Amino acid sequence: MAQDVKSMDGQSWGLLIALSVLWGGAFFFVGVAVKELPPLTIVLARVALAALMLLPLFWRFGHTLPKTLGAWAPFFVMGLLNNVLPFSFLFAGQTQLTVGLASIINAMTPLFTVVVMASFGEEKLTVFRVVGVMLGVLGVAILRGFDGSMNAGQTIGVGLCLIATLCYGFAALWGRRHLGGVAPLKSATCQLVCSSAIMLVVVAVVDQPWTLPAPSQSTWLSLIALAFLGTAVAYIVFFQILVRAGASNVMLVTLLIPITALLLGYLFLDEAIRVQEIIGALVIGLGLLFIDGRLLKFAAR
Predict the structure, then answer these.
(1) How does DSSP assign the chain, residue by residue?
(2) Greater pLDDT, 129 or 166
């Protein structure tokens, strides 16, 4: 039976803003790393280093790893939907796109989440949400451009990033159904352990990183920051919001991420901020305001 979306209190909004800074910075760190390393290798480094960072804290708070394959299964699927697939698509997309543009496309995540949650009967699809989805699609169309300014590689990059956002929508559904009662630290750690196991096999076959040139110091620092801030800490905050405010609300974080990513790309990577990107982000943001609904209801009253 479809449920109403939970409300966001002050602490939830504070966590959401903190998560937007952490994940906005992640786009910046990936933007540095993809200049020297292939996308799949970066995914492996991100999830494996984050898992190693979280495991001591995981054991310190008295958690234990699952003992059976059945107990591991929810975390395995969550790792696939929330890490392996979206990270791989996003990082591949970022080889063709700027940090800012990739983060703006990622702002479509709440729109896909709304559709997925409503399609599976988890949350009600209101008029506000339908309008929000339509505005989000328009925003992405503006990002794509009507003048043919994007080349074939950039168009593929946009498509890869959109597939990643759809994966996040299904991850939110899975997390709500199967991990809602699990402690945030346990959810984060176990899904990262599963993601690391998957990516270790994939990267060994595809990239063979031991044959690659040694990365520079800036790339190593970016990978460490990506793993610690953009993954380990971020996922603890993510699962706290998921438990407190629900799947659709936690995905509203992507409305705030482009601001951080655009500014970091502009300040440190010499990436230009185009008017087209600003307009597209504003239209997507307007769509998210319709999805959230509370501001419009307040204005109506």
Answers:
(1) --BPPPP--HHHHHHHHHHHHHHHHHHHHHHHHTTTS-HHHHHHHHHHHHHHHHHHHHHHTT-----SHHHHHHHHHHHIIIIIHHHHHHHHHHTTS-HHHHHHHHTTHHHHHHHHHHHTTSB---HHHHHHHHHHHHHHHHHH-SS--S-HHHHHHHHHHHHHHHHHHHHHHHHHHHSTTS-HHHHHHHHHHHHHHHHHHHHHHHT-GGGSPPPPHHHHHHHHHHHIIIIIIHHHHHHHHHHHH-HHHHTTHHHHHHHHHHHHHHHHS-----HHHHHHHHHHHHHHHHHH-HHHHHHH-
(2) 166
